Amino acid sequence: MDRKQLKNSASQTVKKHYFLLTVTTVLGAVIGASFLALPTTSTAYYQSLYQYLTSGTYEGFNSFIRSFVRTNVDIINQLLTYGAAIAKTTDGRLIFGMIGWMIIVVLVWIFFKETFNLVINRIFLEARTYDKVPFQHGMFLISAKKWFKTSIALFIKNLYLFLWSFTVVGGLIKSYSYLMVPYILAENPSLSGNQAVTLSRRMMDEHKWEAFVLRMSLLGWDILNVCTFGLVGALYVNQYESSVYTEYYAYVREEAKRTNVEGAELLSDTYLFAKADAEILAVAYKSTKMDEMYIQDTEVQLSGAKKFCAESLSLWAGNKKQMKVYQGVENLKCQLAVDKDALAGEQYPDRLSPFYIRENIHFAGNMNASRTYSIWTLLLFFVLIAIGSWTYHNVGMMLYTQQYLNYGIFHGPWMPMDACIVIFSLMLFTKLRKKPVAAFLSTMVLSAVIMYLTAYLLQNNYGMSLWNYSVQFININGKASLEASFNSAVLSSFLIYFVLPGIDQWLSKKNQTAVLIITIVLTVLFAADIVYSVGNPNTVNLSTSSSYTSVSETI
After folding, report:
1. Pairing outcome for strands 475-476 and 480-481
2. What percent of the residues of the chain are helix, what percent strand, and what percent coil, each to the nearest 5?
3. 3-class SS at 544?
4. Which of 154, 220, 469, 519 could form a disulfide with 475 if both were Cys (CB 3.0 to 4.6 A apart)?
């Protein structure tokens, strides 16, 4: 293996796709799927670090390291923490909430966090071969209907590693034996966990020491990353190291095929590593001409208020039948742009994938982030996000205070601030959707404004202080901060670009009467709670505001 050439190729991939790979790795760090954590602006954190450096206590060192490193051990530590909290209380509601949250944490870890690593690997694999990687390809497991299968396969791999970790050196050795599992599954998600583990073990025979040396050659970057509190990692190291391992997988894969390693024939995604001939692409994408003709014949011409709402607010103001036609054409436009790039050899041709499903011929178009939504869909999204925010914050406070508390001003299970940020960003920055950097920065500003105004109104009208960002370097009177706005913008962008289009497409296939009834019921309950809570706020916050502000950064 020519390690220098491998690293040069990795550098070229990062240079060619810097923005895409940076967004991907930052998102992986934010959700805790992989990579070192992003740097924090909390003065409390740096005070703790200073105390460790001056006192050398083990507790300080442990806190410092765990604040950065994302490992599978985290899930075990979390569950042990929850278990200890349950043992200390006799409150039935708290016990029930803790157990429920433990189940959710495990499910999220198995079916989202770990699987998101595989999605990242897939994006890097496509990036090393092609000039363009559409964000819709990050959903290839969904389009191939393999998300559940690969999640279980990764769980089996992690289970084996966990069991091997009880031996003296087995855990270290097997970590290199199983190194290729996420890449194997990124190429062939139809494999079971045992198949992927076995194939990785065979591929890594006589390569484990080589992989260890490669890991050590990157150690300097890791040290630099820790010394810069994760900043270098966010800007370059995470992307570079991921590209290095992607190149290494391509090398080991080629060696496995050259030496006829048993099972190497399962690595069958040829066009993930080499571009297809123009003739093959022409046959696979022959429908592009027909799609162009369909768009010309069917396109809905909007004017006046309908045009403004659709193109400037992502809001549909017409009848449902016309919306279906309009949305279908807009989705097809998006799909056509993707197909033309594939036809030109600029991106991975998903129609030539071994796992291509004919019924998903317009999958990328349906995931179009620039789609329009009905007012009822936006209302449903708003309430669901508010419920999700309430759940997240209440669990955080429950773990901290060891009490069951209803976090927020309202009596019902919703906190609308995050929902306001997401929905307002979705609507106000519609025209920036195709410029994700501009949309992201605009959402950061919007987040800061909404946070500040919410905190100001709660404090002035009800004497509540539900968060305090004064311990962070860049903040506005403790009511808003750069770090909080950044995290909020990441969440909003993830929902707007990836989650909401998929949910809207899924809802469009369901019983619309049932969806409408659910939306109306939730909206009416939420509106009634607003009216009631304005004059009768949730008073639990008045007596526990100090507890909330003291842990504002943990939630």
Report:
1. antiparallel
2. 75, 0, 25
3. helix
4. 469
> Residue 19, Cα to own-chain centre: how many angstroms?
16
pLDDT digits (tens, 9 = 90+) for 411-449: 999 999 999 999 999 999 999 998 988 999 999 999 999
56 CB contacts (<8 Å, ≥6 apart)? none
pLDDT confidence tier of residue 33, bands split at 50, 70 and 90: low
Rounded Cα gap, residues 142 and 35, in angstroms:
23
Inter-residue contact 104 to 97 (CB < 8 Å): no
User: What are the E-state strand segments in 318-476?
Assistant: 475-476
> Alpha helix (H) ranges present in 17-113?
18-30, 43-55, 58-66, 73-87, 92-108
List, in sequence order, every residue forming a beta bridge with 315; answer none if it has no partner. Answer: 373
Length of the chain: 555
- Annotated domain spans of the chain: 3-35+70-272, 37-69, 286-366, 375-554
Q: What is the 3-state secondary structure (H, E, C) of 168-222?
A: CCHHHHHHHHCCCHHHHHHHCCCCCHHHHHHHHHHHCCCCHHHHHHHHHHCHHHH
Quote the pTM value.
0.84
Q: How far is the C-alpha of 197 from the C-alpha of 451, rounded, in Å? A: 47
Place of tokens 């003065």: 43
Rama region for 42: left / alpha / beta (φ>0; ψ in -120 to 50; rest): beta
For 148, other C-beta atoms within 10 Å of its C-beta total 12
Find all residues with CB under 8 Å of 465, minimum gap 6, and list them.
455, 458, 459, 545, 548, 549
Question: For residue 379, which of 330, 414, 334 has the smallest C-alpha distance?
Answer: 414
Give the residue ranges of DSSP H helices in 268-319: 278-284, 288-298, 304-313
Three-class DSSP category at 90: coil
Three-state SS letters, 435-478: CHHHHHHHHHHHHHHHHHHHHHHHHHHHCCCCCCCCCECCEECC
- At 306-343, the pLDDT tens digits run 999 999 999 998 888 889 899 999 999 999 999 999 99
Q: Is the pLDDT of residue 136 over 80?
A: yes
* Token pair in block for residue 234: 């966010």
- What is residue 42's three-state secondary structure? strand
